[in-house]
Design goal:
The complex is a heterodimer of chains A (113) and B (115). In chain A, 0% of the residues lie in helices and 51% in strands. Chain A is an all-beta fold and 113 residues long. In chain A, strands 2, 4, 5, 6, 9, 10 and 11 form a seven-stranded mixed sheet that branches. A four-stranded antiparallel sheet of chain A has the order 1-3-8-7, with no helix packed on it. Chain A is globular. Chain B is an all-beta fold and 115 residues long. Helix content of chain B is 0%, strand content 50%. Chain B contains no helices and twelve strands. In chain B, the strands form three sheets. In chain B, strands 2, 5, 6, 10, 11 and 12 form a six-stranded mixed sheet that branches. In chain B, strands 3-9-8-7 form a four-stranded antiparallel sheet, with no helix packed on it. In chain B, a hairpin with a 6-residue loop joins strand 5 (33-39) and strand 6. The chains are: A mainly beta (113), B mainly beta (115). Chain A binds chain B through residues 33, 40-45, 48, 56, 58-59, 88, 90, 92, 97-99, 101-102, 104, 106-107, and chain B through 4, 32-33, 37, 42-47, 50, 91, 95-97, 100, 102-103, 105-108.
Chain lengths: 113, 115
């Protein structure tokens, strides 16, 4: 099992560009989520999904979209990148819920210039 | 709203010694879960230990144990026989098993194990 796979590992964008961060898991987990990690801020939840076809907003959803068409994939879309979105992004999954052990991807370092 | 506070931004410990990382939280809920996650320089987040609030017994995982004080809303992590591989950021996290409340993370403690 590969676990949770995130691509790309690094990305540089210009302000206003759009892009999609990919996340895939091969553990048949129902719960998937996206976090951003900023220095001195810990991790903050962007969006999450409790199953295919179901998504919901977290603490900091503005500027991001998600979809969950399959159990395996949970892409995060930046609609119009802004410098404030410079961060490290983590995808995480668990069998059913956020209060179980979360399995994290290795993160995407995103810089918006 | 739930909050998690880690009051020690940085700590260091000598190899083979014991160190305790502090975490306090604020909630009005009675049933919840607490976690310690480790983030080494590789950036990979790894679960260290998990505690269910309704269990009075403190969770342990090999060299890692917690001191869970529910009344004081305290959840400290003790690392015994510290190893160089324990060097990492450690995040305390809190979750309520109901509604849409997200998993809430503290800001982290950077631990350095010194040879």
């Amino acid at each position: 099992n590969a676990g949770v796979t995130q691509t790309p590992k690094f990305q540089v964008l210009k302000t206003g560009q759009s892009m999609t961060l990919q996340c895939a898991q091969d553990m048949n987990h129902e719960y998937m989520s996206w976090y951003r990690q900023d220095p001195g801020m810990g991790l903050r939840l962007i969006h999450y999904s409790v199953g295919a076809g179901i998504t919901d907003q977290g603490e900091v959803p503005n500027g991001y979209n998600v979809s969950r068409s399959t159990t395996e994939d949970f892409p995060l879309r930046l609609l119009s990148a802004a410098p404030s979105q410079t961060s490290v992004y983590f995808c995480a999954s668990s069998p059913r819920s956020r209060w179980e052990k979360l399995f994290f991807g290795s993160g995407t370092q995103l810089s918006v210039l | 709203a739930q909050t998690v506070t880690q009051s020690q931004p940085e700590m260091s410990v000598q190899e083979a010694e014991t160190v305790t990382l502090s975490c306090t939280y604020d909630t009005s809920e009675n049933n919840y879960y607490l976690f310690w996650y480790k983030q080494p320089p590789s950036r990979q987040m790894i679960l260290v230990i998990r505690q269910e609030a309704y269990k009075q017994q403190n969770a342990t995982e090999n060299r890692f144990s917690v001191n869970f004080q529910k009344a004081a809303k305290s959840f400290s992590l003790k690392i015994s026989d510290s190893q160089l591989g324990d060097t990492a950021m450690y995040f305390c996290a809190f979750s309520v098993p109901s509604g849409n409340t997200p998993l809430v993370f503290g800001k982290g403690t950077r631990l350095s194990v010194i040879a």
